[in-house]
Write a structure and sequence with these properties.
The structure holds 2 protein chains of 2 kinds. Chain A is an alpha/beta fold. Chain A is about 30% helix and about 30% strand. In chain A, α3 crosses α5. In chain B, the strands form 2 sheets. A 5-stranded mixed β-sheet of chain B has the order 3-7-4-5-6, with helices on both faces. In chain B, strands 1-2-8 form a 3-stranded parallel β-sheet, sandwiched between helices. In chain B, α2 crosses α5. Classes of the chains: A alpha/beta, B alpha/beta. At the A-B interface, α3, α4, α5, β7 and β8 of A face α3, α4, β4, β5 and β6 of B.
Amino acid sequence: MSGILVVAETRRGQLCDVSRELVGASREVASAAGLRVTAAVIGADAERLAPGLDLEGVDEIVAAVTASERFEAHVWQSVLEALIETRGPSLVLLAHTVDTMGFASAVAARRALGFASDVTAVGWIDGLRAWREPHGGRLRMQLAFAPGRCTLLTIRPGSYDAATAASGYVTASQRTDLSATARSEHVSFREPPSGEVDITRARLLLSIGRPVAEQADVERFAALAERLGGTLSASRAPVEAGLLERARAVGQSGKTVTPRVYLALGIAGAPQHLAGIAEADTIIAVNTDPQAPIFAVADYGAVADLFEVGAELARALG
Amino acid sequence: MLDPDFELREDGTGVAEDWLAWDINEWDSFSLEEALRIREAAVEEPVEVVVISVGKERVEEALRGALAKGADRAVRVWDLALEDADVLAVARVLAAAVARESPALVLCGVQSSDNGAAAVGVAVAGYLDLPRVAVVTRLEWDPASATAKVERELEGGLVEVVRVRAPALLTIQTGINEPRYATLRAIRQGREKPLEVLGLDDLGLDQGHVADARGARVLAVERPAHAGAAEMLTGSPAQMAARILDIVRERMPR
């Protein structure tokens, strides 16, 4: 075993918070197997971002400098393959994000690595172990990997606490220049419309799901949310149907929210949605389907029709 | 789809199959719809839509459903060695089946609704060394330049517009289109369309390839501690609403 390589996530010239969580995720294996932790950042501005990886638990930082200004899946793939080739890590940790989904499993396929994605816990029990929670979190699966083979894991954001900054802790920092060819062409970025609503700050979110298909119902639930002292949000479906602005979408492609109360009406709880509400204090879920995965993460559940319960809530509020 | 009363397999490495219902994956029905739209928009050269799945005989129902919606033919690959295949082993086999067709575009769902790995499509691209874009929310195909202009949606709602030249692989996000339903007549026609069943040797593979590709081994499966932790509210909708208001007021003192 020769080390753990943590690959930082960046977005438009910034280190993402999840990068520090990856260092947190490396801890148990690093100490159980006695492995050094190398944190790598990839990109044209890798050297500028490298100091941000001076974190407790990081032994070495690598700035992999590319010509590519922004993330490009094929460039990142080539750079990661080169890092694996030259450094020979036994474990590689990446964040399970949209960018990573574009290259991580391709690297694992091409290099015949051990592999698991959307991992919620990493540990060491007589060897490397990873845990995943498939079927929308209704199962917990323990995975083992062929010993002596490099394993690549993508870690679900929010699964680990972020490692704290430790200025001067890192003993070695180095720069590697890697050339790699982009195979897709960036055309433009489109900002999410900056509506006046910020659901990440709401104390209560009343969140509506797929069954809401009429604008009049959206207005009714918006009024109900307000009377409860909260804000209206939604799962992917009503937003995609054009009933609400994108700023109100909760989940992987929307926002991560942290309300004291999350009232989910008619939301089944796809993993992408659940990823966005993991930090909510109290989750109350109303859904007609008793099998809905949201009931596995909710504190309170009601098997009922959202329109009926919504009407009764409005009535009770007078 | 997992039945809520599910039982685990005796060896503890999975769910007993009786507790699973089989259907086409949600992400895949959006991928199929996108492929059908490209075919229908084709004016110069005709486009053929082929659906491929790795699985036992039971996946034929889903493949027939895709044929009923308009796919031209279907391919199913199976071997006993695939029984406990992980994402990479499945991708290895799919890659061989895709290579046999040498398509201009390979469309996969971003992920499956059961395993949720979001890894198979891009691993196929890795095996075939195809350019790829993951999590596509809009696709414009230009047959003249054999180029796809796509949007990929990042965390927080930021959208990146990217251009990629065929042959390429795209993983398709839900909501990109509105998948169609098959008419009864189309369902009957779907039964007549070709559905080819292949084994590993038809693809030049053997059980060793599958075993070597495998990235992980399932040691144990359990019900997570938090599953079913919700306290269920019972009674009429009015009683449920009253309890919900109590909980809200308790958590959010004014």
